[in-house]
Design goal:
73% of the residues lie in helices and 3% in strands. It has 535 residues and is mainly α.
Length: 535
């Protein structure tokens, strides 16, 4: 049994934190300054994490290699599997020659690019996030925007920004349920707290999207739609998370938003909107239905995969593998955990229960309905595999880096450094969640990683443990847009060149920091100004 040591450098938390942050700064420098491709930056970050784990933390080589392999496997399945099938779904609609019908049907709702951003990137993307998560909404929404004529960098960047508000309740609220399991706190109180933190920010996200992409003039022109979008989503997000169900929060909020935008479009349009185009009569009815069939099937299958009774049956087919050379061979100690405990490492190969498999079924049946022959479908599979090769490498490398940092104790060191901020901890609690998602690419993983630390620290400081745990999840959503997994997904889905991924990171980084700080201020408000408002 190898015990983790969170202050291995001269028993100093500050020095240890500086060393632990080397892999993070390696990523930041290569992406943000050196403008290197994400796959290269992720491999360099992994190399830095290996050096830190061995030279700084004294992690045994066997456990280190096992942790890296464990992370790489997790990056390829289920995350890489979801990404592959989501992009394949888009390629099916494209290869079938029916994507122009899909575009025409959206144009009948609105042909204003700003409103299409709200409808597809924000609202529809939130629906897919609530149903599937794990990169699917960015992949699906970004490819749809590119198909509508948006440039690849624009589509990728705007979808990364839009995929913030729904992340905490994504994939049928897996982040919230994971947080409840790891902390032992009631899921309903955590859901309510996350909803109360996220709803005020969700209210302004649509306006923020349009201001960033179209400027203040563009925002003024579509302000009624922005207001309806923000009020509908934030309002239902608050109501569902507090009074209905965390599992349905994103689904209900996104459906409410899409319905509100479609209803508004019947009575109002921007004064500077381009002239309305009307599809040809042949582009309606059954043909449009067949064009939308793959995405309709995606929604149906993903919702079925999230239906609890069916989900339980599907999970019986999961293959659980205690990871060789790693499972229960490392001991986590205080103060990262309340009591010394073995660090589990069980890999779940959900070949049937994965949402990527649900997406694959949508691909197969959607291809048949769209008239794509089996031969052309296989050719499309090959093309998609070549397109995503570097993206899948990035996913494997960045998750390998994150797992090496987790199992070596480096991530725990960084968490303790944040926890040492005292009265400012409510602010940095959110930033800790932000860091966790940046490193792992998953709000679920960040909650599993730092949830217990947040509760323990809250107890030491006499703060509300539910609020601090919720801050971890809420702050984490803003790290999603800069995680290398998300950037790789967005770049691959829009067929961006590898060297353009660094530009995508530079674009999203400033917005990520600003919005994460906003979440931190909201948590500070609940902690010190209105503590009775927090669950």
């Amino acid at each position: 049994m190898w015990p983790q040591d969170y202050t291995p450098i001269s028993h100093s938390l500050l020095l240890s934190a500086l060393v632990a942050s080397v892999p993070v700064f390696t990523l930041l420098l290569l992406l943000g300054v050196g403008r290197r491709p994400a796959w290269l930056a992720s491999l360099a970050g992994l190399a830095a994490a290996v050096i830190v784990a061995t030279a700084g933390y004294g992690m045994p080589v066997g456990r280190l290699c096992s942790a890296a392999a464990f992370g790489a496997a997790f990056g390829l399945w289920p995350i890489g599997w979801v990404v592959f099938t989501a992009v394949l779904l888009y390629r099916v609609t494209l290869e079938s020659g029916r994507f122009h019908l899909l575009k025409d049907s959206i144009a009948r709702v609105t042909n204003d690019p700003r409103l299409q951003v709200l409808l597809i990137a924000f609202a529809f993307g939130a629906f897919i996030e609530g149903a599937a998560g794990f990169g699917t909404p960015v992949a699906v929404a970004a490819t749809m925007l590119v198909g509508l004529g948006f440039s690849a960098p624009y589509a990728a960047g705007i979808c990364l920004l839009a995929n913030t508000a729904p992340v905490a309740f994504g994939s049928i609220a897996i982040p919230i349920t994971t947080l409840s399991i790891t902390t032992g706190l009631p899921v309903d109180r955590l859901s309510a707290a996350v909803g109360r933190i996220c709803a005020p920010v969700s209210l302004i996200i649509p306006a923020y999207l349009i201001a960033v992409t179209s400027g203040w003039k563009g925002l003024r022109a579509v302000f009624p739609a922005v207001a309806v979008c923000g009020l509908a989503f934030a309002g239902m997000q608050f109501v569902s998370s507090n009074f209905i169900s965390p599992q349905l929060t994103d689904i209900l909020a996104s459906l409410t938003t899409m319905g509100a935008l479609i209803l508004l479009s019947r009575f109002w349009r921007p004064s500077d909107a381009p002239p309305t185009t009307h599809p040809n009569p042949s582009s309606v009815g059954g043909q449009v239905a067949r064009a939308w069939a793959p995405y309709v099937l995606l929604v149906v299958f993903v919702l079925l995969w999230g239906y609890k009774p069916l989900q339980a049956c599907l999970k019986r087919t999961d293959v659980l593998l205690p990871w060789p050379g790693l499972h229960n061979t490392i001991e986590r100690v205080a103060p990262v955990v309340a009591q010394p405990s073995r660090f589990a490492a069980i890999y779940t190969f959900g070949w049937l229960s994965s949402s990527g498999t649900a997406c694959l079924l949508a691909v197969v049946f959607g291809a048949a309905l769209a008239g794509l022959s089996p031969r052309r479908l296989l050719r499309t599979v090959g093309h998609t595999a070549r397109q995503l090769a570097l993206a899948e490498l990035t996913l494997a490398a960045v998750l390998a880096m994150a797992f090496v940092m987790n199992y070596s104790g480096a991530t725990g060191t960084l968490g303790l450094a944040f926890a040492g901020t005292g009265a400012m901890f409510p602010f940095f609690s959110a930033m800790l969640g932000w860091l966790g998602v940046f490193l792992t690419g998953s709000d679920t993983s960040a909650n599993a990683l730092f949830g217990t630390l947040q509760v323990v620290t809250a107890g030491q400081l006499g703060m509300n443990p539910v609020l601090m745990a919720a801050a971890n999840s809420a702050g984490g959503v803003m790290g999603k847009m800069i995680s290398l997994t998300s950037i790789a997904v967005a770049a691959a889905a829009t067929a961006m060149k590898p060297q353009e991924e660094s530009l995508l990171f530079r674009f999203t980084f400033k917005h990520s920091v600003l919005l994460a700080a906003t979440i931190g201020l909201v948590v500070m408000f609940y902690a010190y100004v209105a503590p009775s408002w927090a669950p």
